[in-house]
Specification:
CATH topology of chain A: Rossmann fold
Shape of chain A: globular
Strand content of chain B: 15-25%
Radius of gyration of chain A: 15 Å
Strand content of chain A: 15-25%
Oligomer: heterodimer
CATH architecture of chain A: 3-Layer(aba) Sandwich
Number of helices of chain B: 10
Distance between the termini of chain B: 59 Å
CATH architecture of the largest domain in chain B: 3-Layer(aba) Sandwich
CATH topology of the largest domain in chain B: Rossmann fold
Number of domains of chain B: 2
Number of strands of chain B: 10
Number of strands of chain A: 9
Structural class of chain B: alpha/beta
Strand order of the largest sheet of chain B: 6-2-1-7-8-10-9
Structural class of chain A: alpha/beta
Distance between the termini of chain A: 30 Å
């Protein structure tokens, strides 16, 4: 699927096996990407997240831990901090919340995806990766229902298939693909921010 | 673009219009001001409330809120209630204990403000910490919230026994000098916290959006409240904290909150940056 001109933002969710999956996807993001990328990965709660640090080295784009009320910068990869939900808010800007865990998870993929739909409507790409619980299924369904693009890592290629299967049970996805195919798809995202900035 | 897609867009726009109308209706009718709240979290809570009250649209919910006064307290719970933990982020309490308490000792009497106390977990945690440090007998803790129903629950100091294991683990990591079980009695699946703590806590109605400063305090603890506010309201709240604090008083915020963007940032120094503890400047 070619994504040129199709989306303004990307949301990604994963749990067990999610770090490996992102290690394939994030290096595929092109410098100058126009979309911001928001990611929720479930992690043990009592440890500070080092995801941004880990993936800065593997990605051509700036990778940051999301801060509350931060204006969203195109072509930036934002990770939800540990023990907070990450939401996309009007502006667009980022917003954090300490609301109850959803599917025992904080950050929750559903919370991120559902908030992003409110802002980006059908111009949103949602990706569900490997994981062992059903968080993200309702969020991906919301993206589907708004007319956005939904992608699920093919369950047989995921280290933990439950998350992908839960998502597919709720709604059909536009694409069900192994990681290298999703990576290929991400390379078709608009990446013209650089030329504009140079002008 | 197919019909379904444009529908979704219109629905989103309608929701935003109805949302503003409802927030305004609540303000005019009940004087609760959510106009400065961050939209994303409030929107999510409103959607949950819609499903709880069986309303298909926010306009339907508005109708019920305006014409049935028994509906509003339930809605207020959806919009405000915050489930916290005792000694949430133990590192914060450890930093208070090791770095702030030694300075608090120098005051003849202490006033502490827990702003946005919700069900009281933070207020009881601070009371226990101050008791362990031998300071509680000269302390008054003002625990404030906008939801009077929550305040009543907080004043009762009753928590489900299942939550106590988590509280105890956090308490231990906070540098505990006693056992959490010294402060509650458990019966019928509930843990009731001690009168000896409650005697030093005043639970009271206060809005960071509409009310002003009510006392001079040495410590303000307001954690994971500001993230629910937009920048303008955050600024108002931090201004209240600045005005309430004595010179060199302390302000503790949530792990992901900052005063960096506030117009009052200059009034504070970083005290324990990793735990978001700030100190009001001496010259103010």
């Amino acid at each position: 699927m070619n994504l040129a001109g199709r989306v303004d933002a990307v949301v990604i969710g994963g749990s067990a096996g999610g770090i490996e999956a992102l290690s394939v996807l994030l290096p595929a993001l092109t410098p100058g990407l126009r979309s911001p990328v928001f990611i929720v990965l479930h992690l043990p709660r009592d440890r500070p997240s080092v995801l941004a640090e880990i993936f800065s080295r593997k990605c051509a784009l700036p990778v940051r831990e999301a801060e509350d009320k931060e204006p969203i910068v195109p072509g930036t990869v934002y990770f939800a901090p540990n023990n907070y939900h990450l939401l996309v808010d009007n502006g667009p800007q980022l917003s954090l919340s300490a609301d109850d865990p959803v599917h025992h998870s904080r950050p929750s993929i559903d919370v991120l995806f559902e908030s992003a739909v409110e802002i980006y409507n059908e111009r949103l790409l949602g990706i569900i990766l490997s994981g062992a619980n059903e968080d993200g299924a309702a969020g991906l369904a919301a993206i589907h229902d708004a007319g956005g693009v939904t992608v699920v890592q093919s369950p047989e290629t995921a280290r933990a298939a439950h998350m992908a299967l839960s998502a597919l049970k709720l709604r059909p996805a536009d694409c069900v693909l192994p990681l290298d195919e999703i990576a290929k798809m991400l390379r078709t995202l608009d990446a013209d921010a650089y030329p504009e900035r140079l002008n | 673009m197919d019909a379904e897609v444009s529908d979704a867009r219109i629905v989103g726009r309608e929701f935003d219009i109805e949302f503003k109308l409802l927030i305004d209706a609540i303000y005019q009718m009940y004087h609760y001001d959510f106009r400065g709240y961050a939209m994303a979290s409030l929107r999510r809570r409103m959607r949950a409330a819609m499903s709880r009250f069986n309303c298909r649209t926010l306009s339907q919910l508005q109708d019920r809120v305006l014409h049935d006064s028994t509906v509003f307290p339930g809605l207020l719970d959806f919009l405000t209630v915050q489930v916290s933990e005792m000694f949430r982020d133990p590192g914060y309490f450890l930093a208070l204990r090791e770095q702030v308490v030694p300075l608090l000792r120098t005051y003849p009497s202490l006033k502490v403000w827990v702003a946005g106390c919700s069900a009281g977990e933070e207020a009881y945690s601070l009371a226990i910490l101050l008791k362990e440090e031998g300071l509680l007998s000269k302390t008054i803790i003002y625990a404030t919230d906008i939801n009077s129903g929550t305040l009543q629950r907080a004043a009762a100091g009753v928590y489900e026994v299942e939550r106590i294991a988590g509280f105890t683990a956090n308490h231990r990591k906070s540098g505990a000098r006693s056992s959490l079980s010294d402060y509650y009695t458990a019966a019928y699946g509930r843990a009731v916290f001690d009168k000896s703590l409650k005697e030093h806590i005043v639970f009271s109605d206060h809005s960071l959006a509409t009310d002003s400063v009510f006392a001079e305090v040495q410590l303000v603890s307001c954690r994971n409240v500001l993230i629910y506010f937009n920048r303008v309201l955050q600024d108002r709240a931090v201004g209240l904290f600045r005005d309430a604090l004595c010179r060199q008083g302390f302000l503790g915020l949530g792990a992901k909150e900052s005063i960096r963007f506030s117009s009052h940032a200059g009034a504070f120094l970083d005290f324990v940056p990793a735990e978001r503890i700030f100190q009001k400047r001496a010259e103010l």
